[in-house]
Amino acid sequence: MLIASTEVPINVAANIAFGIVALGMIAAAIRVVTTKNIVHAALYLVLVLAGVGVNFLLLQAEFLAITQFLVYIGAIVVLFLFGIMLTRAPLGVSEDLDNPKMKGIGLLTALMVLAVTSYSVLATFGADRISLPGGASTNTADLSDEIFSKYLIPFEVISVLLLAALIGAIVLARRD
Amino acid sequence: MLLNQFLLLSAILFAIGVYGVIVRRNGVLVLMSIELILNSVNINFVVFGTMHGLGGQVFALFVIAVAAAEVGVGLAIVLMIYRTKRTIDIDQLDELKG
């Protein structure tokens, strides 16, 4: 872990924070896919999403971190809880959330995906360090410049997509 | 911080999400597993953005917007399935089976 390319200094505090958050995220993510209580799955999902937000902060993507907290934890998790409520899922422990026949196949597929991606990542990026600008620099202004100049057309397309999804969700979920 | 520690975390989250999509039977839980996958991809976008300018962060924002749209429509579809079949067990949606 501490080899070669020493041009970027190691930030010990950030590394410790990353380690704690990463372990918590992995544990919570495993609980999301294994817990037998569907409401607990949504609450563990909050932990994972908050961990992703903290990772964005560690990478100095502060606007993205705020968006993550607002959109995911504020809106999407609430949407999930409404979905659970409206489909009258059994609140409390229920045994039929998993398909026991698929457990072996799922585990095998997940391990193969993990093996291939982690091998290729380790082989490609070895001990490369992330170089972040030091101090209290922010990039929110640069990000908005980028979105509204270089990526303006994708931004407009996303707006149309969101409108279409909104109308589509209303049409699908409407009782008539 | 190493590039790899973020990329490996993202790979682990992706694998857990794939496991959830395959094993879970409840439609809402499958959507939650898809959220895990999308978030792991977002971490990758931001990490690579530190090497190649702000494009990574812009695309992570777009992924968040698309994920919000996906959850909205996905939950509406799950609600429709619940209304017509009185269950959201996706293993029972086998009308296409011969």
Could you describe the 3D structure shown?
The complex is a heterodimer of chains A (176) and B (98). Chain A is mainly α and 176 residues long. Chain A has two domains: 12-138, Up-down Bundle (Four Helix Bundle (Hemerythrin (Met), subunit A)), CATH 1.20.120; 140-176. Chain A is 70% helix and 0% strand. Chain A has helices at residues 12-34, 38-58, 62-86, 103-125, 140-149, 152-173. The termini of chain A are far apart. Residues 1-5 of chain A have low confidence and may be disordered. Chain B is mainly α. Chain B has one domain (3-87): Helix Hairpins (Orthogonal Bundle), CATH 1.10.287. Chain B is 80% helix and 0% strand. Chain B has helices spanning 3-23, 27-52, 55-85. The chains are: A mainly alpha (176), B mainly alpha (98). The interface between A and B is large, with 89 and 67 residues.
Brief description of this entry?
With 176 residues, chain A is an all-alpha fold. Chain A has six helices and no strands.
Q: What's the architecture of chain B in CATH terms?
A: Orthogonal Bundle
Q: What portion of residues of chain B is helical?
A: over 70%
CATH class bucket of chain B: Mainly Alpha
- Secondary structural class of chain A: mainly alpha
Cα radius of gyration of chain A in angstroms: 21 Å
Q: Can you count the helices of chain A?
A: 6
